[in-house]
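Re-run requested by the PI after the first attempt was lost when the workstation crashed. Everything re-entered from the original request form. Ligand of interest: aspartic acid.
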Amino acid sequence: MKFKKSLITGIVASVAASALLISNTAMAQKDWPTKSITLIVPFAAGGPTDSVARLIAVPMGQSLGQTIVVENVNGAGGTIASTKVARAAPDGYTIYLHHMGMATANALYDKLPYDPLTSFEPIGQVADVPMVLLAKKDLPPKTFKELEAYIKANGAKITMANAGPGAVSQLCGLLFQSRLGVKLTNVPYKGTGPALTDLLGGQVDLLCDQTTQTIPYIKDGSVKAYGTTTLKRLPAIPNVPTLDEQGLKGFEVKVWHGLYAPKGTPKPILDKLNAALVKALNSPDVQKRLADSNIDIVPAQKMTPAGLKAHLEAEINKWGPVIRKSNIAD
Ligand code: ASP
């Protein structure tokens, strides 16, 4: 009898404790955010991914009523940051902006400690950024045709910067080399921000980078631009031909970005994050700053968790075979 009574008391106490826990959790989700949010960026400060992150961090923070602090977790082409986010507490205080490296890393690395499709909660797609094949300003070739001949004559004496395996600069650079049938000396950096600084200083010969920071340098002649990775010329630099029109048929790399949270982040918090993202991307100031760098805002249906998930899946299926076929992961 005594045993039965203490059992019942125990059950009642544990039901009450779980109810309290549920209501505390619900309360925490309802009140979220009560402190600043960390937005992790997988590349160095001053680079293109960092710039897109900082551009959305301010208006998103204003809508949510808390500061969004950008943290650069550099290295290994973004995979160190992805691992960190996959292991972070799913409480809405860690979010993550990554580009299409989220879809290519699996094919480039043998084993990753996270799965791009199951270790994160997609929040929404952010923007599509074109790339340009750049060179230091005093590299001798004047045209893309001359560059091809120069590369064939000099091979590994030529250096090409990138942001590490998993970075789009690396993917673009390796696809370029595989199309020309050459191997250059590839130099990894912690982001294309520092790589661009070295290109401007003449310490490295070539770099394939997003247009985010590069358009002013192309326009004032501080770097050479041999071709864009788009199938149409870019309005901001109409004199730069596409690589496709110069003989590299179908050479297209458009860098899309997505916003994520660690797996298990509660849906009410993801909904608030998505609403803040959509509002930020629709603000005239953000739209103008993106347009100035030829960055395209994605259609509304892609700015959603389902839109980003579907796009990520499609990109994994698209790039896996391309990377394997070009042997660029070797
Ligand atoms: N543009 C870089 C890349 O190649 C990353 C960055 O620094 O934003 O992936």
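Saved to the shared folder this time. The pocket of aspartic acid is lined by residues 43-44, 47-50, 99, 101, 163, 167-169, 191-193, 209-210 (CB under 6 Å).
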